[in-house]
Specification:
The protein is an alpha+beta fold. Helices cover 40% and strands 17% of the residues. It has a five-stranded antiparallel sheet with strand order 1-2-3-5-4, with helices on one face. A hairpin with a 3-residue loop joins strand 1 and strand 2. The protein is globular and about 55 Å long. The relative contact order is 0.08.
Length: 356
C-alpha cells in the first residue's frame, strides 16, 4: 500500500516548483489520459486515492491535489502524453456510468467549451460496440441544428474519447420538471424540431432506440430554444425491410413491441416521440407500471390516453390526434408521417396546417 502524505512540508522545493508550473485543470486532464493508457504506477495511485477519498472523515484534498500534481508532472515529461492532452483542458467531471464518463472541458486552440465523453470499450458487449460504431459513423457525417455536434474522436488504449458540443442549459426532462406541462405552441415547436432530426436519422437508416427527455438537450433562451438529440449509445443501423431484435431503451418511452421482445423497425422512435409529446402537453408520461410486465399490460389495455382533463378542451384536435397516432399499439404509420411532424403555426389565425 502506498503512503499518502498530506503534509505539504514534505514536498521538495524542486517538486513545488514543478507543481507550480502545471495548471490544476491540466493535471486532471493528464491524469484522465493516464487512467486509460494503463500505466501501472498511475493506476496504483488512482486506486489509493479512490480508497482514501471514500473515507468521508478524511480531509484529503491536499493529498489528492498533491498526487494529481505529481502525476501530471510525471506524465507531462512524456512527449506522447503531452501530444494527446495539449489541445484539451479538462475542467470538471460531471457524468459517470458503468461504461463511460463525461467531462466538461475547454478546447485550448479555439477556446470553445466542449464535453468529452470517455467510453470504456473493453466494458462494452458486442451490441454496445456496434452502437458505438454507429454513433461515430453517424455523428461524423452529419451537421444538423437538432443533432448534437461531434467535433472530434480519438482512441486510447481500451477506450475512445468523443469531443462534442457542451450544453450549458438543461435537458428536456429537467425543463418539464421545472415548468410542468408546456403550452401547446411550445410543444409544437419542440415536436417540429424532433421531427426534423428524425428525418435526418431516417435518411441515414439510423434508429436511436433511446429517445427520452433526458437525451434531448436544450440550447438557447426560452424564446429561442433549440433541441438537440444526444446520446446515440444504443443506436443501430437498420436498412428498409430489415428488423432489429435487441431489447434496449428506457421502458416508459419504449414501444410495446420492444418491451414484448418482438422484431421492430424505425417506427419505435416514432412511439418514443409520441410519449415525449404527451409528456410535454401533460407534464407526465402516458404510461407507467411497477415493472415492465405491468407496463406492457397497461399499454395494451389502454382504450383512452390519460390526458389531463384540464388541458383537453384547449388542445387543437389534431394535436390529440397526433398523440393517438404515435402511441397506437402496433402502429401502422406511413413513412410520410415523418414529414407531417413538421407543423406550421399560422400566427394570424392560430390555425394549424400539417405538411404531408
Amino acid at each position: 500500500m502506498m503512503h499518502v502524505d498530506t503534509d505539504p512540508d514534505t514536498q521538495t522545493e524542486a517538486a513545488k516548483q514543478d507543481l507550480a508550473n502545471v495548471p490544476y485543470a491540466n493535471a486532471v486532464g493528464c491524469l484522465m489520459y493516464a487512467m486509460v493508457l494503463t500505466r501501472p504506477d498511475i493506476a496504483h495511485v488512482i486506486s489509493v486515492v479512490s480508497r482514501y477519498m471514500a473515507q468521508p472523515e478524511k480531509d484529503c484534498w491536499k493529498a489528492v491535489k498533491w498526487i494529481l500534481g505529481l502525476s501530471a508532472i510525471h506524465l507531462s515529461k512524456n512527449p506522447a502524453h503531452h501530444e494527446k492532452t495539449k489541445h484539451i483542458d479538462v475542467k470538471l467531471h460531471f457524468i459517470r456510468n458503468e461504461v463511460s464518463r463525461v467531462w466538461k472541458a475547454e478546447h485550448l486552440s479555439s477556446g470553445d467549451v466542449v464535453a468529452v465523453k470517455q467510453v470504456y470499450v473493453e466494458k462494452l458487449n458486442k451490441h454496445l460496440k456496434s452502437s458505438l460504431d454507429c454513433e461515430l459513423n453517424f455523428l461524423s457525417s452529419v451537421n444538423h441544428p437538432n443533432i448534437i455536434l461531434l467535433f472530434d474522436a480519438f482512441p486510447a488504449e481500451n477506450c475512445i474519447f468523443l469531443v462534442v458540443e457542451f450544453c450549458a442549459g438543461v435537458n428536456l426532462s429537467s425543463y418539464i420538471q421545472l415548468h410542468g406541462r408546456v403550452p401547446e405552441q411550445t410543444a409544437r415547436k419542440f415536436l417540429q424540431q424532433l421531427g426534423a432530426s428524425l428525418e435526418i436519422l431516417n435518411s441515414h437508416h439510423i434508429i436511436h432506440r433511446d429517445l427520452k427527455p433526458e437525451n434531448i438537450l436544450l440550447f438557447g433562451l426560452d424564446d429561442d430554444v433549440m433541441l438537440k438529440i444526444a446520446d446515440f449509445g444504443l443506436s443501430c443501423t437498420l436498412h428498409p425491410g430489415n428488423y432489429a431484435e435487441k431489447v434496449c431503451g428506457s421502458p416508459m418511452y419504449m414501444a410495446p413491441e420492444v418491451l414484448q421482445f418482438q422484431r421492430y423497425d424505425e417506427k419505435v422512435d416514432m412511439w418514443s416521440v409520441g410519449a415525449i409529446l404527451f409528456e410535454l402537453l401533460n407534464g407526465y408520461p402516458p404510461f407507467s407500471g411497477r415493472n415492465n410486465v405491468q407496463l406492457v399490460r397497461n399499454i395494451n389495455s389502454c382504450k383512452h390516453l390519460p390526458f389531463s382533463q384540464l388541458i383537453v378542451p384547449a388542445l387543437h384536435p389534431d394535436c390529440v390526434d397526433m398523440c393517438l397516432k404515435l402511441l397506437s399499439a402496433n402502429p401502422v404509420i406511413p413513412h410520410s408521417l415523418l414529414n407531417s411532424l413538421q407543423w406550421i403555426v399560422c400566427p394570424s389565425t392560430n390555425s394549424i396546417t400539417i405538411d404531408s
